[in-house]
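Why should sequence recovery work at all? Because a backbone constrains its sequence more than one might expect. Tight turns favour small or flexible residues, buried strands favour hydrophobic ones, and helices have their own preferences. The token representation captures these environments compactly. In the example below, the structure is given first.
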């Protein structure tokens, strides 16, 4: 039968120790603080986007100067040559003459990066070459009229 007397905490098993729960909380908070501090340090030390510093017209193409090496993707289109740089910069445009043929060029910012178009009345064949120079990255773009078969 049950008794109505108050039991004075005289059980066969002792009370659970509250320390393991507090330890888990303490170490969990240390891990969380370490993660947040690491993310902040990584954000502060991460370099910003690549910047286009200058564009110069050359006799056979263009010369582009970046602050560091960008990712470059090229594409040959009918009558045009295009380069996509994973970089940021200001929109620019101009004209140059290649083998007596006028070639219009334009640099514009897009969602995917900085896009350079070289367009002429005849099909163009283009190539580019990049190298580290003067503390930055220098890309030489050369275009010529495509050879007809």
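From this structural description, the recovered sequence reads:
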């Amino acid at each position: 039968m049950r008794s109505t007397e108050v039991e004075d905490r005289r059980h066969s098993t002792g009370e659970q120790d509250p320390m393991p729960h507090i330890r888990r909380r303490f170490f969990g908070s240390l891990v969380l603080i370490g993660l947040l501090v690491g993310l902040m340090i990584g954000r502060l030390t991460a370099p910003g986007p690549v910047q286009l510093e200058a564009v110069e017209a050359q006799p056979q193409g263009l010369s582009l100067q970046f602050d560091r090496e960008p990712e470059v993707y090229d594409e040959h289109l009918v009558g045009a040559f295009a380069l996509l740089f994973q970089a940021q910069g200001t929109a620019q445009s101009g004209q140059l003459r290649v083998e007596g043929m006028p070639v219009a060029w334009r640099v514009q910012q897009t969602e995917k990066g900085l896009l350079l178009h070289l367009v002429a009345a005849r099909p163009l064949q283009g190539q580019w070459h990049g190298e580290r120079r003067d503390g930055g990255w220098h890309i030489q773009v050369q275009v010529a009229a495509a050879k007809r078969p």
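A few observations help interpret the result. The first strand starts at residue 52 and ends at 58.
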